[in-house]
Amino acid sequence: MCGISGLFDLRGVRPFDADVARRINNVQAHRGPDEDDIHLEPGLALGHRRLSVIDLATGQQPLFSVDGQVGIVFNGEIYNFQALRAELQAKGHVFRTQSDTEVIVQAWQAWGPDCVHHLRGMFAFALWDRPRQTLFLARDRMGVKPMHYALLPDGTFIFGSELKVLTAHPGFQRRIDPLAVEEFFALGYVADPRCIYSGAHKLPPAHTLTLRRGMDQLPSPAPYWDVQFTGDNPISFEDAQAEVRERVRDAVRLRMIADVPLGAFLSGGVDSSAVVATMAGLSNEPVRTCAIGFDDPKFNESAFAQQVADRYHTDHRLEVVGSDDFGLIDTLARLYDEPYADSSAIPTYRVCQIARHHVTVALSGDGGDESFAGYRRYRMHMGEEMVRQRLPLGLRRPLFGTLAALYPKADWAPRPLRAKTTFQAMAMDAVQAYCHSVSHVRTPLRESLYSAAFKNQLGSYRALDLFREHAARARTHDPLSLVQYLDYKTWLVGDINTKVDRASMAHSLEVREPLMDHQLIEWLATLPSGHKLRAGEGKAVFKKAFEPLLPHDVLYRPKMGFSVPLASWLRGPLAGRMRESVLSDRMADTGYFHRPTIGRLVDEHLGGRHDHSTALWTLVMFDAFLRQSASLDSA
At 506, phi and psi to the nearest 5? Predict the structure, then answer.
């Protein structure tokens, strides 16, 4: 796990300043504290910060081929590198190191751009082929590892693991993209491939980008893989359980290869518990596990984590943090480089901090909810779909639209009585309804939150357009598969993977996600939806598969989630900071917001009339981003 950076002269072979190359590389020193180096040649600079995990002695980067003609900077892990190495050696390739990095170089020399089809792992890399004068960038299928890039006005192409690599370059112009602001307030993050700044891009998951000397503009990234939901696997529900266990076992086994201390996160939820149980079956030593607890019992899962730790006699570390642990707002703004509003970034940061005291590599259960249909919103969506499929949109829109307008926003009421959102969703088609359900700030509130001038800047664009683009490529008519596909393309990449990458790398910790193994995901996409969501139970086949290995309470208790008490924070100890942030001159000076609407949200929340905590937290984090951006101006 590392940080990579680089510069490429698209137009010629101008030499790059070594000090600039070092500066942009070293802004991400937290990603790789063990070693760093840069390579310079006419028209090219490659930079690398190393966190040593495999081949500690000879895995330094930038790494070049035996003949010196092909070089690479690489972030991630190739889990099948040993099998690939043997395959390439059989073809006559000679290796100088034991690293997975050199396997990518040799795979390029054997297969060219098709090398990505042979790689099983999480990766983002830039590969320089000197004879072809070609720079080749690639990102893993599920977007676990990040890649940012931009073309500067002078023809310099710049790339890096984090956006701060780009902003550290004196030639990069930080102009906020209005469409990215809309995506942030809708989703709580800026969705791939957009960045908060115009002209900057994220390389989408499962895409490559090929640059050749002499190009006058950037080509479009090219896709090399996509998940296809077929649901046509004839396997029985019972037989699928055994295969789930075996496939998870294979994915976990591959991710336990490391030359440094390795452990796992153990939240007490189904996914991390299944990963730990699998690791215990593969290890002769006690698995190192790490959990975080909260002093507020409504948010504390540590007792369930302890059940799993006791069952498998893990070397378990638990740290309890206060429910007022909100001092990370500005730290998160620095880490994420662009606005990011998932409040679970706070406990994620803390659990990574704790884990790094004991291990260098940690396995997680991320991806299980998306792949096995574990979210409550999936069940809600499927219930709504039953109605949508029976009533035409022309009838539903006026009927449920009227009910939604008349029904009060009853945040205080029991969940079954909070029908306003459901009525709104019933008046929409499936894609619009799902976008509505996952929105941080839903469309009606965003429309009132934005100023008239900002709405003019947006034109017709809304975050829903992104969901429609992805839905058009989903190639499935199954309603559950469609929303799983949408989550793979939006939430999993933009929220979950971004959160874990930045939080773990802030502490120089490598996190591996076996439930995002692409071969596992390809197979799960062939299962009938009824194997995943069955009689109202999400993750049905997954839970059944692990019944012999995990306590019943861990498998079938209500999902708690990795959350924090936002509403009470913003009415209590954070109320002053919240009011100062959302009504600050910084926010007003953007021209994006209708100030009276913000004032109303503040008053209604503080008065206890409505719970606007998500919208207000989103505004607080946007102001934190603006504050961080201003600090770059003054640096």
Answer: -60, -25
Residues 618 and 190: their CA atoms lie apart, in Å, by 12
Domains and their CATH numbers in the chain: 2-223 (3.60.20.10), 237-373+492-556 (3.40.50.620), 565-635 (no CATH)
Helix, strand, coil distribution of the chain in percent, nearest 5: 45, 15, 35
Phi, psi of 411 (to 5 degrees): -60, -30
pLDDT digits (tens, 9 = 90+) for 433-449: 999 999 999 999 999 99
Strands 156-160 and 200-202: unpaired
Q: How far is CA 484 from CA 269, 299, 382, 562, in A?
A: 20, 26, 12, 20
Q: Which of 300, 290, 294 is nearest to 356 (CA)?
A: 290
Q: How far apart are CA 602 and CA 611, in angstroms?
A: 10
Contact 83, 107 (CB under 8 A): no
What is the four-CA torsion angle of 114, 117, 120, 122, rounded to 10 degrees? 70
Contact status, residue 106 vs residue 65, Cβ threshold 8 Å: yes
Extract the tokens encoding 465. Answer: 């357009």
Q: CA-CA distance, 140 to 46, in Å (whole number)?
A: 20
Return all residues near 154 (Cβ < 8 A) that are at least 6 apart. 171
Say how far apart CA 212 and CA 128 lie, in whole Å: 10
Is the bond into 193 cis (omega within 30 degrees of 0)?
Answer: yes
When pLDDT is cut at 50, 70 and 90, the band that residue 146 belongs to is very high
- SS3 of 461-490: the string is CCHHHHHHHHHHCCCCCCHHHHHHHHHHHC
Task: Give the DSSP H/E element, type plus range, for residue 521.
Answer: helix 518-524
CA-based nearest residue to 370, from 481, 272, 475: 481
Does residue 300 contact residue 274 with C-beta atoms inside 8 Å?
A: no
Q: What is the pLDDT of residues 355-384, one digit of tens each?
A: 999 999 999 999 999 999 999 999 999 988
Residues with Cβ within 8 Å of 485's Cβ and at least 6 positions away in sequence, in order, are 227, 229, 470, 471, 474, 476
pTM of the full structure: 0.94
Read off the DSSP letter of residue 85.
H
- Catalytic (active-site) positions: 2
Cis before residue 62, ω within 30 degrees of 0?
A: yes
Within 8 A by CB and 6+ apart from 173, the residues are 153, 197, 199
Amino acid identity, position 46:
L
H or E stretch at 387: helix 376-388
Residue type at position 71: G
Identity (one letter) of the amino acid at 232? D
Q: Which residues pair with 450 in a beta bridge?
A: 593
User: Residues near 415 by Cβ (< 8 Å), separated by ≥ 6?
Assistant: none
Phi and psi dihedrals of 212, rounded to 5?
-125, 145
The CA distance from 322 to 402, in Å, is 44
Distance between CA atoms of residues 121 and 307, nearest Å = 31
Give the CA radius of gyration of the chain.
24
339 Cβ neighbours under 8 A, 6+ residues apart: 181, 184, 189, 190, 196, 333, 621, 622, 624, 625
Q: What is the mean pLDDT of residues 171-176?
A: 96
SS3 517: coil
Contact assessment for residue 474 and residue 481, using Cβ atoms and an 8 Å cutoff: yes
Structure token pair of residue 616: 């207000």
d(CA 254, CA 525): 21
Q: What's the confidence (pLDDT) of residue 1?
A: 58
DSSP letter (8 states) at residue 190:
P
